[in-house]
Amino acid sequence: MVEPTTREEYRKLFGERFEAVAALDVPGNEVTMVSKYFVDNLVDFKPDEEPLRPEAAKLLRERAANPGKGMPSSRCLPGGVPWATLVAPR
User: Fold this and answer.
1) Which own/partner contact pairs does 23-31 have at CB distance under 8 Å and 24+ positions apart?
2) Which phi and psi angles does 69 have, rounded to 5°?
3) Cα separation of 47 and 39, whole Å?
4) Is the separation of the CB atoms in 4 and 35 below 8 Å?
5) Is the pLDDT score of 59 beyond 60?
6) Is 87 strand, coil or helix?
7) pTM of the predicted model, to two decimals?
8) 1-28 tens-digit pLDDT
9) Could you tell me which residues come within 8 angstroms of residue 80 by beta carbon, excluding any fewer than 6 positions away?
10) Measuring CA to CA, which residue among 44, 80, 55 is closest to residue 63?
11) CA 25 to CA 22: how far, in whole Å?
C-alpha cells in the first residue's frame, strides 16, 4: 500500500505547480488522502531518466504542453463513469 503524501512533500516535489495539485482538493477527498503517484507516476525520476521509450517520452512531452488535447473525452461528452469518477479514491 502506498502512503498518502503530505502537503509539504507536494510543495517540495511540485514547487509552483503545487497549486494545480491543490486544486484537486474537495471536501472528503483532499489531496493529502492520495499518493504523489496518483498525480505523477514518474515523480521519483529525474528529467530525462524516465523509464520510457523515446517515442513515449516525446508523446508525454507533447501532451504535457497541450493539456487535454486529443483526449477521448474531448470528443465524447459526457465523460462517462470511469472518467467522471477518476479522482475518487478506489
Assistant:
1) 24/87, 26/87, 29/87, 29/88, 29/89, 31/5, 31/7
2) -70, 130
3) 16
4) yes
5) yes
6) coil
7) 0.45
8) 667 888 888 888 878 777 776 776 777 7
9) 73
10) 55
11) 6
DSSP class per residue in 7-40: HHHHHHHHGGGHHHHHTT-BTTB-GGGS-HHHH-
Distance, in Å, from the CA atom of 42 to the CA atom of 47, rounded to the nearest integer, reads 9
Please tell me the distance from the alpha carbon of residue 32 to that of residue 75, in angstroms, as a whole number: 32
How many angstroms separate the CA atoms of 67 and 76, rounded?
17
38 close to 4: Cβ distance less than 8 angstroms: no
CB atoms within 10 A of CB 36: 21
CB 36 within 8 A of CB 8: no
